[in-house]
Amino acid sequence: MISLFAASLLLLLLLANAADPDPLQDHCVADLDSEIQVNGFPCKPSENTTASDFKFSRLANRGNTNNELGLWITRASVEEFPGVNTMGLSSARADYAAKHGMNPPHVHPRASETFYLFEGDLMYVGFVDTDYKLYATYLTCGDLFVFPGGLCISSSMWAASLRLVQQPASGALACQSRPLRNRSPSLGRGAHEELLNLGGDAKDYERRDRRTV
Which structural domain range is residue 210 located in? Predict the structure, then answer.
């Protein structure tokens, strides 16, 4: 009986301490050319690491939004920015065409995301939680929005264009993982279509509890 109690207590302690491990070294710039096969990327030798490995300048450039989605994502994840290897984060710039630019519904399974609108006068963003409730609102330049991890999220200029938006928009994203464009457990029947459309008046979304059963 005592041994069973001890085993249960040990299991609870193990569960309570479950987390991603801390890095084993101060930094681990990814060696993208290494032939070593590991889960991730091996570290570049520290003697060959310089300050330039921790600098990324491509987010300053606007992307080409002349495509079906009216969207261009400039990523700064480990494949493009080796200095963030093992740090548990990545960044990106999202450029949206005026009136129709859209980042379709997607999921970051193990990471939350922040979105900062640094250019443009209006952006529509939202996510659906596991109760099928849609949280959607408008952002103006300078606003920051956080998307909880594992939920289906989207952002759009299409719905914002209902408010006569004439300018393109650009936002800065910060997240640990690349998106998966599939449905998450939070997306029930009908919620997927609502998140795709992201239409209607902002005050209407804020005052109504939009649920799908």
Answer: 69-213
Closest CA to 84 of 181, 180, 178: 178
Contact between 145 and 139 under an 8 Å Cβ cutoff? The reply is yes
Q: pTM for the complete prediction?
A: 0.71
Burial class, 1, CB count within 10 angstroms (exposed 0-12 / middle 13-18 / buried 19+): exposed
Residue 4 inside a domain? The answer is: no
Enumerate residues 6+ apart whose C-beta is below 8 A from 166. Answer: 98, 99
Contact present, 86 and 160 (Cβ < 8 Å)? no
Which two structure tokens, joined as six digits, stand for 127? Answer: 């996510």
Interatomic CA distance for residues 81 and 104, integer angstroms: 24
Task: Specify the residue for token string 């002349």.
Answer: 66
Domain of 88, CATH number, reads: 2.60.120.10
Whether 44 is covered by a domain: the verdict is: no
Candidates 100, 136, 122, 104; CA nearest to 169 is 122
86, two tokens: 């093992």
d(CA 162, CA 98): 11
pLDDT tens digits along 114-153: 899 988 878 889 998 888 888 999 888 899 999 998 888 8
**pLDDT digits over 20-71, tens only?**
667 778 899 999 998 887 778 999 999 999 999 999 999 999 999 999 988 9
| Number of domains present in the structure of the chain | 1
